[in-house]
């Protein structure tokens, strides 16, 4: 069998790709519009993740993750919009919408790469949040400042770069 005899990979028609791109872009807009609910969900997830690595009990109250319950020194950290995974996910969704609108990139590869990239930034942000809480509990305000503004920021930017690279590799490899 020659290369010429192989069937061409199935491509989504242009109207379907435009509709798909609009849906992904709509997901980005919806994520921003529902950011308060997303942040509350992140606080709940963080309380669950931080529980085993911090002293006392942990829980979420709205968009605030509280640790140290029962120790007499409870600490609450509010997840603000700018610290939320929303800020990392929206640019990835916009990139995904643009890529989906370009016919030369396979839809399956684009969606797989987008899913992987979104997973990377979500996990990285949860690790960053947990690190901030542990540092806050161990070293008080100084631990919070260093882990949040320096170490955590560098970590999450590096994770975002890795997410973008994984997206590009997955999409580009299957062109």
From TrEMBL:
<dbReference type="GO" id="GO:0008233">
    <property type="term" value="F:peptidase activity"/>
</dbReference>
<keyword id="KW-0378">Hydrolase</keyword>
<keyword id="KW-1133">Transmembrane helix</keyword>
<protein>
    <submittedName>
        <fullName>Exosortase/archaeosortase family protein</fullName>
    </submittedName>
</protein>
<feature type="transmembrane region" description="Helical">
    <location>
        <begin position="146"/>
        <end position="169"/>
    </location>
</feature>
<keyword id="KW-0812">Transmembrane</keyword>
<dbReference type="GO" id="GO:0005886">
    <property type="term" value="C:plasma membrane"/>
</dbReference>
<keyword id="KW-1003">Cell membrane</keyword>
<dbReference type="InterPro" id="IPR026392">
    <property type="entry name" value="Exo/Archaeosortase_dom"/>
</dbReference>
<keyword id="KW-0472">Membrane</keyword>
<feature type="transmembrane region" description="Helical">
    <location>
        <begin position="117"/>
        <end position="140"/>
    </location>
</feature>
<keyword id="KW-0645">Protease</keyword>
<feature type="transmembrane region" description="Helical">
    <location>
        <begin position="79"/>
        <end position="105"/>
    </location>
</feature>
<dbReference type="GO" id="GO:0006508">
    <property type="term" value="P:proteolysis"/>
</dbReference>
